[in-house]
Amino acid sequence: MQRWINEIARVYTGEPRQVGAGFSSPELPYLKIHPIFIKISHRVTKVPCMPTPKITRRRLFTLLAGSTLCAGASLTNAYLIEPDWLSLTENEIPLPNLPASLDGLRVVHLADFHFRPDDDDVLITEMVKRVNELDPDLIVLTGDYITSNPVVIPPLLGHLAKLRAKHGVIAIMGNHDGWKMEGHELKRSFEKVGITFLINENTRLNIQGDTLAIAGLDFIWLGHPDADRAFRGIATKTPTLALVHEPDYFDYLNREKNFLIQLSGHTHGGQCRVPLIGYAPIEVRYGEKYIYGIYDSNQSGDAKIHVTRGIGTTGIRVRFACRPEIALLTLRSIA
Ligand SMILES: [Fe+2]
Q1: Alpha-helical segments (H) within the chain
Q2: In angstroms, what is the span from residue 187 Cα to ligand 1's centroid?
Q3: At 300, is the pLDDT very low, low, confident or very high (cuts 50, 70, 90)?
Q4: Contact partners, residue 195, CB within 8 Å, separation at least 6
Q5: CATH topology of domain 85-333
Q6: pTM for the model
Q7: What's the CA gap between 72 and 67, in Å, rounded?
Q8: Rounded distance, CA 204 to CA 139, Å?
């Protein structure tokens, strides 16, 4: 035993050891079971590791048929099933600076509608129905209502006007909206149907005697985000949700402002992901770092960010391993 201790001490103290000193090989435990390894390895090596399969016509046909079937099923799913296969994701988010009175606040986060009236009517109708069934406290919409044509706004608002939450519905701009529409026009259209629309401004809700501030920024990609204006008048200690369409702005905002969590869309969760590992090969500007889900800040602040997979699609109407998402976030106080 003493010899063992000395040997370990030598390893950690770096004390040089003369060659040949210390343990003789048979005393080391791994060498004591050495014969077992020898026996196993002998058996293994006797069996050919990778027998080369003989490629017969039948095997080749089976392989091709299987591959075609898999590819067909994947394409059918990606084009015909998944873009309409709405999912509900529920997350509890512990927030250190959330007052106890706001513990349990349920926020539905929706984004990236990219509404196509001919294709998405059933999807959006179901989305509104399911969100209202959740009876949330607050609904936030983090941008990209259109892809390129503003004429879809009135029919989309026909659906969004039916959303119901105890403390209302609050929306911000997305880059696709800002590229094709004036912000004030969009704001007017939304506010006509009772949806609060924030462009570099904030609103404050009184919930059970406490104030919850919501700061909404203009879109980042070629837009005019102004964090100072968006957070103007919010006291440092006021619990605040930040709405920003493009998620990668988080690193900047987290350095500059105090808030609990940033809610973003923009990435569509990748829209097509590699099954099982979830890797999203297609990146979008300002959506390269935070792709989907909840991330902790790796900086000094306590803020978090949530990125939703969104509802609609851009480009080809296709989704793969990345279903449209209603995100229900329950905020938890860990003060
Ligand atoms: Fe976007």
Answers
A1: 2-13, 29-32, 34-46, 57-76, 117-134, 153-160, 175-180, 183-192, 227-230, 250-256
A2: 17
A3: low
A4: 141, 157, 160, 161, 163, 168, 169, 170, 171
A5: Purple Acid Phosphatase; chain A, domain 2 (3.60.21)
A6: 0.81
A7: 8
A8: 14
Q: How many Å lie between the centroid of ligand 1 and the Cα of residue 96?
A: 30
pLDDT digits (tens, 9 = 90+) for 160-173: 999 999 999 999 99
257: how many CB neighbours lie within 10 A of its CB? 19
Take residue 7 and report the two structure tokens written for it: 């040997």
Ligand 1 center to 306 CA (angstroms): 15
Residue 44 Cα, ligand 1 centroid: separation in angstroms? 55
In the chain, where are the structural domains located?
A: 2-46, 85-333
3 state SS of 306: strand
Q: Tens digits of per-residue pLDDT, 191-208? A: 999 999 999 999 999 998
Beta strands in 158-303 (DSSP E): 169-171, 196-197, 201-207, 210-216, 240-243, 261-264, 293-296
